[in-house]
Each structure stands twice: as C-alpha cells, then as structure tokens.
Design a protein that fits this description.
The complex is a heterodimer.
Chain A lengths: L3 E4 L2 E7 L5 E8 L2 E16 L17 E2 L7 E10 L2 E10 L2 E10 L3 E9 L7 E11 L7 E7 L2 E5 L3 E4 L11 E5 L5 E5 L7 E6 L34 E6 L2 E2 L6 E3 L2 E5 L4
Antiparallel strand pairs in A: 1-2, 2-3, 3-4, 4-5, 4-10, 6-7, 7-8, 8-9, 9-19, 9-20, 10-17, 10-18, 11-12, 11-14, 13-16, 14-15, 15-20, 16-17
Chain B lengths: L21 H9 L18 H12 L5 H6 L2 E9 L12 E8 L4 E8 L4 E8 L7 H12 L2 H6 L5 E8 L13 E7 L5 E8 L4 E7 L4
Antiparallel strand pairs in B: 1-2, 2-3, 3-4, 5-6, 6-7, 7-8
Classes of the chains: A mainly beta, B alpha+beta.
Chain lengths: ~270, ~210
C-alpha cells in the first residue's frame, strides 16, 4: 500500500512510527501546505485509589505508565479506507489489557479528525487515559503564525507559550483554539470533544524539541509537553500544539477521544 | 635538494564577467527561499538497515561518547528518520535520530546523525528516561518470571501480558528516578492478576502487587 493519500482534496503522507502510532506528514489541503507532521507520541494511564485516605496504605501511591503505540504493538495492517466525503487511516494496537484504534480522518470540507478509540479493561476499573497528540501545523509556510483562544465571547491572541485548558467556552462552532497564518488569514480551528476534559499546550517550535520518546523527563521535573513550556513569544512565529485528553474509564467504553480540526481559508 | 622553481605561468587575459541576462536574473530573484512547502517527502521514509547501522557507527565513534562506547552498557532505544525544517542548515539532509540509554552513566543520549555528512550533528545528554527498548521489555519479563514472590502469586494459566513503561510519582518509590518496568501478568482473556515492578538497573523485582490493588 502506498504511503501517500491523494483524495478528498487532501494530499497526505504517513508512516508507522516506533512509539507514536501512525504519523502523518507533509499534509496539503487544496494544494496548500497545512501540516509538517503530527503524531500521537504517547497515551499515559494512571490509576486512582478507591480510598482517599493515603495514610491507610502509604505504599500504594503508584505512578503512571504507558506503552508505545507502534510496530511492537500493532495488530494487523494499517488500513486506508474511503468513506462518503473523505478518507481515513486506521490502525489497531494492543498491549495486555489495553487496546486502542488510532484514526486519522480527512474530510473533503477541510476537517481533519485525529482520534483514538480506547478499549480494554485495564488492570482494574479505576484508571484514566491521557492521550497526547502533537501537531506541527505550517499554514502556507512555517513562520508568521499566531495562536488564539476563545474566551469572554471572543477570540484572543495569545502572546506567550503556555497551557490552555478547555474552560467550557467555545465559539458558535464549538471551536476553542485556533492557529492562524497571519499573512494569508488561513486557520486551523480546534474543537475538543465535550467529554475529553481537554487541554492544549502551545509551544514555539524549536529544532531539538522534537516529539520525545517518553513523557518522562528527569526525575522530579515536569513531564512532556509541560517541560517544553517557557516564556517564549508565539506571535508571528512557528507554533507547535499538543492536545491532551483525560478520559476516565467507565462501563460505557469504548470511548473515542480526540478533537475535530477544521482547515479554513483555502477555499472549498 | 632545493625544489626546482616552477616556470611562471603566463597570465590569462582578463575576461570581463558576462553580465547576467535580464530574464535569468529575474528568474533567479523569483526562486523562493527554502520553505516547508517544498520539503522532500522521501526524507521521512523509514531508515534502511544500512542507514541504521551507519547512524549507530557514527554515534559510537563520536569522541563525546567514547566512554559509553568503551564500557558498552547501553541500549539503543530507537533509530528513526528525522527531518528538520528549512531554513535550518540541515534541511534537505538525510538524518537519523538515535536515542540510547547509557546504563553505566544512568543517562539518555538523544542524537541527530547527519547521514549525508557522516557526523553527529546534534547531541543531548540528559537524565530523562526514554521509553524501554524491546530488549528491555523482554528482559523485564524474564526477571519477573524467575522471582519467587511473583511465582508464588501466579495462578494457573497466568502468563506475562505486557510490559508497561512505569515511573514512580514520589521519591519514596524506587521507580521515581530509576529505570523501571511494570510487568502485568494475567489470563489470556485479558484479566490481569498481578503487577511486578522491575528495577532495570539492578535487574531485580522491587514490588509485587495484586492487579486489583494497583
């Protein structure tokens, strides 16, 4: 199977990574460059205690864990399928009691859906999944981008890197964040899933700050992507976005996490 | 013997540099600067076995890593293609990102090897913990399988289901700062029975916890 999709006004390349699922790269919509690369660097899982009384059992405060989604956990082939109005890539991954289906869906109206369906029982019911997506959008070029957040009933330009949780407020289409190419006015808008308890990290792009091969930084330090957040200005530069969902396991699983992303300003 | 003097060359007649034709100059001025829109997709292609070998040879010959290479207690975690954006000087080069965990120094090596130039172009040495290699995952299982506490708690039909990449939340937990794995045992139908935490620096099981209490 070719690793290039040219369908539904999209041209997208993809490859299976060692730990970040299916990575897509050099994605164009209607002949305009939209994205340099995007992937799912990791899905961490943490566990909650059934009692909040730490003194009852002080030894049982466990940390999180994760398993790479890649060649070592892939179940069957990566699939490419057309659907009415678009085309999608999907791949299933499994590791013991954890099962995932990663999806990249490309709609002819400019929507892009990076989703993750979560199955599997886990080691017990009291656990929460934290899928982390990383997007390096380059709208009509890498530079001259800006990041905006919807707040107090209007869009605000964000000046510096930071962490931007979904507060419940969104524009009339449900969008909460967007990256704008200042020159062309084109934008990618991000609409979180209502139940993702989502947050977004906006970080200035730097060579060397590539997707890490683990969420785990130095002991006692912030994990990634928090460890990349500093005080650098974003306006007019190249921006990297991380979308993080927080999904508590319950009996209604499977659950599909991930945002809707819409490319606008390139016609169509 | 003194070298014989070379006969002096006769000077070439000075030619005036041809002036660029107006059309060619206009075309040159119109060539866009390197940009992400003109990136070569083949640079993202998976590395060939030869490219992987080349990257690792180049890395281990780098003088900055000579002690690591000499001691030889390191694991290659991952070797994957890396593509940097224009206008970086390495844009357009075939690059490999190599991540290694050096057990002797308890540190991570995160390197970018320029395969076109045959040099380590970027090197970071940190205390971050990269993911476990497949070999480390397998090693954790083999350590857990022979541990007496684990064997005592395994039920009939329990097998190792998966090796999770685990780290402790607090300094009380040995896995807070040490390279660790959590091996989940259970039945083939997916039900988990016990979790064994393995310290990969000492190759020891440090904790065995019933899965329902994890």
């Amino acid at each position: 199977m070719s690793n290039v999709i040219a369908e539904a006004h999209w041209k997208v390349h993809w490859r299976l990574t060692e730990s970040a699922g299916i990575m897509i790269y050099l994605a164009d919509y209607r002949g305009h460059r939209v994205l340099w690369e995007a992937s799912l660097p990791y899905v961490t899982v943490d566990h909650q205690r059934e009692t909040l009384e730490l003194r009852d059992d002080p030894d049982e405060a466990h940390g999180p864990w994760w398993i790479p989604l890649g060649a070592r956990t892939l179940q069957g082939p990566v699939r490419m399928q057309s659907f009415r109005g678009g085309v999608e890539l999907s791949a299933a991954f499994a590791a013991g009691p954890y099962h995932y289906t990663q999806l990249w869906r490309f709609h002819d109206d400019g929507r892009l859906c990076p989703w993750l369906t979560i199955y599997g029982p886990g080691v017990h019911d009291q656990h929460t999944y934290h899928p982390h997506w990383r997007f390096d959008f380059d709208l009509d070029g890498a530079r001259d981008d800006a990041f905006e957040r919807y707040e107090d009933a209007r869009w605000h330009r964000v000046e510096k890197e930071g962490w931007f949780p979904y507060s419940g407020e969104a524009d009339e289409h449900g969008n909460v964040w967007r990256q704008v190419d200042v020159t062309s006015g084109a934008a990618v808008s991000i609409r979180p899933h209502t139940w993702d308890d989502a947050e977004l990290f906006a970080i200035r792009y730097h060579d060397g700050e590539w997707a890490p091969y683990s969420p785990r930084s130095e002991a006692g330090s912030a994990t990634f992507p928090s460890a990349y957040v500093g005080e650098e200005p974003l306006d007019g530069d190249d921006v990297t976005l991380w979308y993080v969902a927080h999904v508590h396991f319950d009996q209604s699983f499977p659950y599909t996490a991930g945002p809707w992303i819409k490319v606008e300003g390139f016609g169509g | 013997m003194a070298p014989s003097k070379k006969p002096a060359k006769t000077a070439k007649p000075v030619k005036s540099k041809p002036k660029p034709k107006p059309r060619a100059a206009a075309l040159a001025a119109r060539v866009p600067p390197p940009d992400v829109a003109h990136a070569d997709p083949t640079l993202f292609d998976p590395l060939t076995p030869g490219e992987i070998a080349d990257a690792l040879r180049t890395l281990t010959e780098d003088r900055r890593l000579s002690s690591m290479a000499k001691v030889g207690r390191y694991r290659v975690i991952c070797t994957e293609p890396l593509v940097v954006k224009p206008p970086h000087w390495m844009a357009g080069h075939r690059l490999a990102r190599v991540v290694v965990y050096d057990y002797a120094a308890d540190r991570t090596v995160d390197a970018c090897v320029d395969l076109d130039a045959g040099v380590v172009a970027h090197l970071e040495l940190t205390r971050a913990q990269p993911m476990l290699s497949r070999d480390e995952e397998a090693l954790a299982v083999s350590i857990a399988m022979v541990d007496d506490r684990v064997r005592e708690q395994l039920a009939l039909g329990d097998v190792p289901q998966s090796t999770l990449h685990y780290w402790g939340r607090t300094p009380d937990d040995l896995a807070f700062a040490r390279r660790s794995a959590a091996v989940v045992f259970g039945r083939a139908d997916g039900h988990a029975s016990i979790v064994a935490v393995v310290d990969l620096l000492e190759n020891l099981v440090t904790r065995v916890v019933p899965a329902e209490h994890w």
